[in-house]
């Protein structure tokens, strides 16, 4: 697989294509892609889904992707390093958003479709991306400072939209302890190390035994059951949208083998993964 290397900490540009001619690839940087116009299909980490005007994708260095263009598409690209985002983020936002950005930019959070769901935010972010492109390209007086402010605003809107329903409001108001633990589990369920009781207990300054009892008492489900629920949601998405075979999906989700994955999936959905995929495709 091709790897695209960029030596600049921040770059903004646009491309317009009728046919996508860049092979499946990943990067050594983060990449924010805004669809200014056009339609087609985005292939990301083996999953395919349609895109349209206003869609926004945040790609991490480990993400591999390419596009299939249906109607002539113009993309606005914002490429940046992790160091750049911390430098650009306004001081008054750092304490509030640092943890959220770390979760957003984690490598295994299964964020695939457009990060912008709110219609008004889609329009505003598209306009901000256009202005950012102009400022970055023009090199006028204070263009660097203006670009930094625009990038910070874009990231703030992106963060607000990539959180779960009501996520930013809950974060700003303060989640209760159980909600904070569950949110952490939802985001990091695919990371086996972070899901170890010892790690969770250390993260939330609790004993391993108490955090297990606490979550079971508050929700009626064990931590392992919450982790497995997130894995099953990811499994459904991979079965619906990817071309991975059952063995590959089992491996991605951290199961020892396909047999174990089949057994767990059947327990949750009352059918095997193969049956689920077949039924979904025939629907």
- Tally of extended strands? 7
Strand content: 15-25%
Helical region count?
A: 12
Under CATH, the homologous superfamily of the largest domain reads Regulatory protein AraC
Question: Average pLDDT, to the nearest integer?
Answer: 83
Rounded to the nearest angstrom, the radius of gyration is: 20 Å
What's the CATH topology name of the largest domain? Jelly Rolls
Q: What is the overall shape?
A: globular
Content-based structural category = alpha+beta
Question: How many domains would you count in the coordinates?
Answer: 2
- The separation of the N and C termini measures 34 Å
Under the CATH scheme, the architecture of the largest domain is: Sandwich
The share of residues in helices is 40-55%
Low-confidence parts: 164-173
Largest sheet: 5 strands, antiparallel
CATH class of the largest domain: Mainly Beta
Secondary-structure element order, as H and E?
EEEEEEEHHHHHHHHHHHH
Describe the fold and architecture.
- There is one protein chain.
- The chain has 283 residues and is an alpha+beta fold.
- It has two domains: 2-162, Jelly Rolls; 177-282, Homeodomain-like (Arc Repressor Mutant, subunit A), CATH 1.10.10.
- 52% of the residues lie in helices and 19% in strands.
- The strands form two sheets. Strands 2, 4, 5, 6 and 7 form a five-stranded antiparallel β-sheet that branches.
- Helix 3 (119-138) runs antiparallel to helix 4, helix 7 packs across helix 8 (208-219) and helix 10 (246-252) packs across helix 11.
- The longest helix is centred in the middle third of the chain and has 20 residues, at 119-138.
- The protein is globular.
- The two termini are 34 Å apart.
- Mean pLDDT is 83; it is low at 164-173.
């Amino acid at each position: 697989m091709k790897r695209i290397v960029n030596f600049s900490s921040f770059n903004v540009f646009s491309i317009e294509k009728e046919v996508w001619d860049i092979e499946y690839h990943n990067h050594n940087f983060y990449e924010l892609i805004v669809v200014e116009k056009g339609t087609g299909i985005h292939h990301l980490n083996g999953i395919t889904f349609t895109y349209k005007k206003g869609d926004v994708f945040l790609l991490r260095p480990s993400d591999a992707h390419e596009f299939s263009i249906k109607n002539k598409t113009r993309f606005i690209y914002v490429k940046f390093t992790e160091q750049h985002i911390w430098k650009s983020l306004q001081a008054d936002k750092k304490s509030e958003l640092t943890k959220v950005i770390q979760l957003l930019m984690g490598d295994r959070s299964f964020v695939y479709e457009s990060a912008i769901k709110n219609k008004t935010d889609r329009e505003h972010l598209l306009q901000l991306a256009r202005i950012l492109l102009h400022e970055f390209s023009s090199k006028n007086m204070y263009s660097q400072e203006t670009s930094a402010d625009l990038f910070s605003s874009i990231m703030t809107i992106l963060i607000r939209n990539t959180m779960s329903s009501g996520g930013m409001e809950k974060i700003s108001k303060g989640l209760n302890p159980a909600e904070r633990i569950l949110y952490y589990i939802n985001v990091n369920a695919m990371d086996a190390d972070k899901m170890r009781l010892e790690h969770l207990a250390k993260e939330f300054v609790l004993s391993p035994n108490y955090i297990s009892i606490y979550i079971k008492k508050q929700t009626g489900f064990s931590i392992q059951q919450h982790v497995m629920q997130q894995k099953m949601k990811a499994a459904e998405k991979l079965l619906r949208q990817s071309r991975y075979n059952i063995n590959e999906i089992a491996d991605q989700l951290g199961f020892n083998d396909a047999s174990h994955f089949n057994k767990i999936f059947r327990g949750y959905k009352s059918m095997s993964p193969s049956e689920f995929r077949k039924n979904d495709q025939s629907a």
